[in-house]
Structure formats: C-alpha cells, structure tokens
Task: inverse folding
C-alpha cells in the first residue's frame, strides 16, 4: 500500500523519514526509465504565482515524460489573481479541472492553506521563504547518489543561511540521518537560532564559520547558495565579503576525494565557472535529478505506482 | 495590614494569581466585555506568591478548559477556583494548550494568515521554561514577546 496516495506535500516534515526514502527509491527507478505512459489521462495544474525557471520546467518535463497533461500559468499576471481573486477561490476553481495541483506562491504558508481548501492533493513548489520540499528531496537524492549513503555525513552549508529556505529544509531532513553540519556565512546572514536549536535538540554537532577555507577539506558535501547583493545595505560591505564565499578551483585542492559541490541554482558568482570542469561539481546533475524525484512524488501521490 | 475586601462569590469562577498587568488582557481573552454576569476585577493586590497580583471573579459563569487554557499565554501561574454556594468546589491551575486557534496573530507579515481570511493556528512546541509556538501555516516559531491577540 502506498501511504503517499492522495496526500499533499507542503513541508518536508509532512512525510516521515521512511516515506522520504521510498520517494528516493522510486526516483531511482525513474532514473533508469524516465519515459513511461503512467500519467496518460491525468491532468495536472501547474500554478506559478511567481516566476521560476528550473522548478517549473523540471515539473513540466517530469509530467510530460510520463504522458500527463499540464494546465496552468507561469506568472500571476496571466491568472485571475491580477483581477483580485483570492487564493482560496483560485484553488477551489482549479481543483475542479485537475487531479493534482503544483503551486509556487510568494506568500509563506500559502501552500498549507491551499492544501486545506483543495479537494485534490497539492504539491508545494515553494511558498515564499518557507518551504520547498521537492528541492529538499532532490538534494537528498543527489547526496545519496554521490555518497552512497545519507547517514553520518559532514555537510557544509555556504552563503545566505538566514533566508535560504532550501538550506533550512535540507538541514532538517538530513538531521534525521545523524549528519554533522558546518555553517559558513557572513554574520548577518547566519543560520537562524530556531534551526540551531533543532539540531541541538537532536544531539547533533554543528560549527559556524565565516570562510569556506575553514571547512572545505572536511566536508563530504558542500552545499552552496547565492548571497544576494540586495541583502546588503552597504554595497562596499558586499564587495568585501563576496570573495570569502566564492568557490574557486584552487579551494578544492585538498578536498576529500568523493566530495561533491551542490547548488540549488541559479548561481551568480558564488561558484567560479572553472569549478564546473572538475568531477566535484555536481549541480547540473542535481538539477537533472529534480525530474526523477518529481516523477516519483507525483506518481506516488496519484497512486499510479505501488 | 488591612485586607482588601471584595465581595465573596456565591456561585461562579475565581481566577487568581494573574499578573496585574495582564488582568485586562485576560478579560479580553475570556470575552468578559461581552458578558452580562456580575464581574469583580482587582489589580495591584498584595500576594505572598507574586509581586503584585490581579484577580477576576465572575458570577455564575464557568469556563471550558480550552477557553481557560488560553489565558495561560499571559497568566501562566493563574489558578482557577469554581465556587458553589460559597464553597470551593474545584481548584485548577491553567495549562498551556497544545494548539492555539484563532487567538493570536502571526507576526510574520508575509504569512498567508495576514493576507487571506484564515483562522490562525499555532502548535505549541515548547511550554516551559520558554513558551514557543509554531505557526501552522508559515512555520515560523514565535515566543511570548511576539504575542499579539486578535
């Protein structure tokens, strides 16, 4: 029996550790055979109230490869929201036309709300600064693919750890696997206390740093994120710190042999393009994994795989 | 020392050991402003347990546990006494509930509850020593300092 059937995926914590692992196993099956007519006759709504390239295209690619049909919009301006329609009414209308809703929305908690008013399952493709669970699952898939395990790894998180929702969700998910964490960020973009408390409560170790050099030789995964210039009130301050957070080829000289660099993308200048040619760079493969993981999530929720 | 005398209650509820500064808030939470019952409220009273306590007596009114537990957010040491025929029938201390529904506003201005008509819901993740609640929608964890009653 597939326990995910007809359930919404709003927050990574909605699914147990065992259920998360089932999704990863199913994704591995899709990686071997991503084109199957499993979603023939199914209609999936893709509601993107704010623009997204990677997530939207990856979902659409995942559905198309399985033969499903997609309806929806890629920005709020082309929906009734621009006429002042509430999210409640949009969801209650759209749920009549589809079997599942995929939603990206700029407001925190909008996905939970949508899942409560919708009569079809909702998959959260990012709700403001809150959650992005399908990204978390594809990050986990990539970590397992490269390290052959999820347990007892040392993971370095670099960049904007305060606002980066991918960091918060991945941290919570990997905390179930007895991992150790190193946080590298400017002080004012440090990981929130709320997250450190949760890591502490689980009895796991973490350390805080302000440059990549302090952690790069010890980690199994270096999870890079973008530091946005607009977060800095003083542009000179941004110029001063940005080099600490730019990963260069020379930084990788003494890294562990199996170490991989991940990034949820888009990247700006936090990973120098010369790093791309090394076998440690794994962010484009990570983006590809998004297709298999999303195929697994949709197929399991719709109950077309066991 | 003279004792402050307030009328004894024949039947009803006495809520004692409320911090003086929270008496009005407790009254608002229990919607006493809409009540037709006889209500006696005291503030800045001497107490052996507290620096300065407040008390509320409500005649012929009895609160449900989930109603009274709401006041634990502002008066965690409050005690509740049910009076019947001038006698104490039952004494209780308030408990922080596991879930707080429709009582407080989410301080996150980007939370959906501040944008659509949604009843707020918080899951209490830590009761003591420090009260911590997580918004059911935006998942932000808030503390006592963030409390803003609807």
Result:
């Amino acid at each position: 029996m597939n326990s995910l059937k007809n359930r919404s995926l709003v927050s990574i914590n909605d699914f147990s550790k065992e259920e998360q692992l089932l999704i990863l196993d199913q994704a591995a099956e899709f990686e071997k055979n991503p084109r199957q007519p499993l979603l023939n006759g199914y209609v999936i709504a893709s509601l993107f109230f704010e623009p997204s390239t990677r997530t939207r295209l990856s979902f659409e690619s995942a559905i198309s490869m399985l033969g499903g049909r997609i309806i929806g919009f890629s920005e709020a301006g082309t929906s009734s929201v621009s006429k002042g329609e509430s999210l409640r009414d949009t969801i209650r209308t759209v749920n009549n036309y589809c079997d599942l809703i995929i939603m990206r929305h700029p407001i925190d908690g909008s996905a939970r709300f949508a899942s409560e008013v919708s009569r079809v399952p909702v998959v959260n493709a990012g709700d403001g600064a809150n959650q992005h669970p399908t990204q978390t699952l594809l990050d986990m898939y990539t970590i397992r693919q490269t390290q052959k395990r999820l347990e007892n790894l040392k993971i370095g998180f670099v960049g904007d750890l305060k606002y980066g929702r991918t960091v918060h969700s991945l941290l919570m998910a990997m905390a179930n696997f007895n991992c150790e964490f190193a946080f590298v960020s400017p002080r004012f973009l440090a990981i929130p206390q709320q997250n450190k408390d949760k890591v502490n409560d689980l009895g796991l170790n973490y350390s805080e740093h302000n440059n990549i050099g302090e952690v790069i030789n010890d980690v199994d995964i270096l999870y890079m994120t973008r530091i946005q210039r607009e977060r800095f009130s003083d542009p000179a301050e941004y110029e001063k710190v940005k080099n600490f957070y730019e990963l260069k080829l020379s930084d990788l000289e003494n890294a562990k042999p199996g170490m991989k660099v991940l990034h949820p993308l888009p990247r700006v200048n936090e990973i120098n393009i010369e790093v791309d040619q090394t076998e440690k760079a794994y962010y484009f493969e990570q983006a590809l994994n998004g297709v298999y993981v999303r195929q697994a999530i949709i197929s399991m929720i719709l109950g077309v795989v066991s | 020392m003279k004792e402050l005398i307030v009328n004894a209650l024949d039947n009803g509820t006495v809520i004692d050991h409320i911090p003086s500064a929270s008496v009005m808030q407790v009254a608002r939470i229990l919607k006493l402003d809409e009540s037709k019952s006889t209500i006696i409220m005291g503030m800045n009273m001497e107490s052996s347990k507290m620096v300065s306590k407040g008390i509320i007596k409500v005649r012929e009114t009895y609160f449900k546990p989930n109603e009274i537990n709401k006041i634990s957010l502002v008066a965690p040491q409050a005690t509740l006494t049910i009076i019947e025929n001038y006698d104490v029938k039952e004494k209780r201390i308030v408990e922080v509930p596991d879930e707080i529904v429709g009582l407080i506003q989410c301080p996150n201005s980007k939370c959906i509850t501040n944008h659509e008509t949604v009843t707020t819901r918080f899951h209490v993740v830590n009761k003591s020593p420090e009260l911590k609640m997580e918004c059911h929608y935006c998942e932000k964890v808030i503390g006592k300092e963030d409390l803003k009653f609807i």
Q: What stands out?
A: Strands of chain A lie at 43-48, 69-73, 100-105, 122-127, 154-158, 180-184, 206-209, 221-224, 260-262. Residues 5 and 300 of chain A are 6 Å apart (CA to CA).
